[in-house]
Each structure stands twice: as structure tokens, then as C-alpha cells.
Amino acid sequence: MAIRLGVIGAHGRMGTEVGKTARQDSEVELVAELGRGDLLDRLQEKVAEVAVDFTTPEAVKGNVLWLIERGIHAVVGTSGLTEADLEELEAAAQGGRANVFIAPNFAVGAVLMMRFAAEAAPYFQAAEIVERHRAAKLDKPSGTSLRTSALMGSARTAPWLKPVEIHSLRLPGSVAHQEVLLGAPGETLTIRHDSIDRTCFMPGVMLAVKKVQELRGVTVGLEHLLEL
After folding, report:
1. What is the pLDDT of residue 139?
2. Which of 8, 69, 127, 222 has the most C-beta neighbours closer than 10 Å?
3. How far apart are the first and last CA of the chain?
């Protein structure tokens, strides 16, 4: 049976790409595409099993809580959820029928970039992140840079290591770009990932759509689905 999928934020850049990809996937049936002003009730009317959210930082938590209450699994690509938000979502999902999967970045290359940065982090006394996105991106810093910083910070336990700083750029012509720069006396290491087209996110989104029903509660990070 194909997974009955709804897309919230279906007319945005990412939502449009998700719809296009879902139509070409025989394991998924696209049953609802919601834009601004559309009621989430349509997801129930169309009996959606999974909903993908690519909306705004202001809307995403309320959307996911609505999905949890109604037993619809959520795949979230919207940035802006805080640690307190995640705790609230986890509490709401406990013992319920719906799981939540959240990815700061759905590109496999970006996940590997974060993994490599975390592995290198303990060996360099200074580390900084430079992230660049389109001018209209609402959140700053990006979810990817915050996730990268958190992973690196967990690995940088020695007291002499400096905190990881994030520098955010918002420029026309950009999609999603991040550099991690690490420095020690006499050497630097740069780890970089560039998303030059939104199609790079789609394999990760579709993987999450197909796997979210097997998870429990709230899961953050595509690495949990890639068996790294």
C-alpha cells in the first residue's frame, strides 16, 4: 500500500519540490497539498498518514502538535524549533500514535559534512561556521549550522578549546551553503557543503516519509535513518 502523504507549505520552494517528487514515487500517494490559508483539516479529510511540513518558524510547532493530536506522522524540514519546542513535541508524542521526524538538513552531503566536522572538532583549538542562504530565508542562524555547532560542541570537551562561532550570510542567488573552518598552529581544515539545487534534499525527504512510521516519539537528524 502506498503511503498517503500530505504536504503543508506545498506552494513554497521546498513544498513544490516535495510534491513533484512524490508524484513520481510509486510508494507514495500525494493526497493533499496545503498552501497559505488552507485548513489542516484537509489532511484528515484525505486520510493522510504522513504530513511533510515546510512552512515558517512561527507556524511549524503548532502544525506538528496538531498532527500529533490526530495521529498523523510528521516529517519536518522547517527551521526554527528550539530545544524547549522539541521537549514539548516529545512530551506530546509520548504514548501517542504519531511519530515526528525533524531534519535540520535533508541533503546526504550536508549530514556527512556535520559528521566529519564533529569528528575533527576535538583536534583544533578554534572552529567557526560560515553559513549562507537565500536572502529571504527567515531564520538566522540556520538549523543546519546550529545542529553542526551542537554536534561539534559535544565533541569539544577539553577546557582549552574555544566555543564554535557561527556567521550567517543572506544573499540573493544562494540556496544552502556551509563551511566549517578549523584552525590550529600551522594548519587549517575546511569542510564545505553546497546545495546548488533543491533536488538534493528530496531523497532524504522521501526516506523520512517512508521510515517515520517505524520510529518512536521525536527523532532529530537524517543520520539516524542513514545508519552511519
Report:
1. 86
2. 8
3. 28
